[in-house]
Amino acid sequence: MDPVPARLDHIVLATPDLAATVAEFARRTGVTPVAGGAHVGLGTRNFLVGLGGRRYLEIIGPDPEQPRPAGPRPFGVDALPSARTVTWAIAVRGLDAAVAAARARGHEPGGVQEMSRRRPDGTLLRWRLTDGAGHPSGLVPFLIDWGRSPHPADAGLPVTGLLDLTASAPDPDRIRPLLAAVEADLAVERGPVSLSFTLDTPLGPVSFG
Against a cut of 0.90, is the pTM above it? Predict the structure, then answer.
């Protein structure tokens, strides 16, 4: 199995302290993430790093410039004690059809949501995604469809290559059919629930869990 899933769109590194995690990422890798934009109304914003090709890393955390939202912030950032790789996304074209196919194969990918944010240069990005509620561990990716929108990886991001994305679960045989249902190729070993990735950085290989 390829250590980098073929249809990987992005990896989500969530944090309760965005500024601190961005600074720590830059210190460990020698690559400084750039501002992506705010998720208005959700109380979060992100910083991005390209992973090569049409793939990227999203570092997401609370946005101090927004009021606290009425509900929980995305990816459980309010409850995290520290930065953690929480989930990943695969790119699809035709989200509704992909959702229907996953359900036919026995996996519930969750409801479909429409999202948007503006880049610092004012460009509006729009996308549709599944909420991942069918498997909240984050090991089974959510589906994302950028439609005709610009893609974050096309915006001249700083790039550091992705060497691998791996996962572990107490019962890998329960996870593998769900991955197959969304046509995601991810290596899953036996162990505690975890998701991790390794980058080929200017300072050498660096892993994040």
Answer: yes
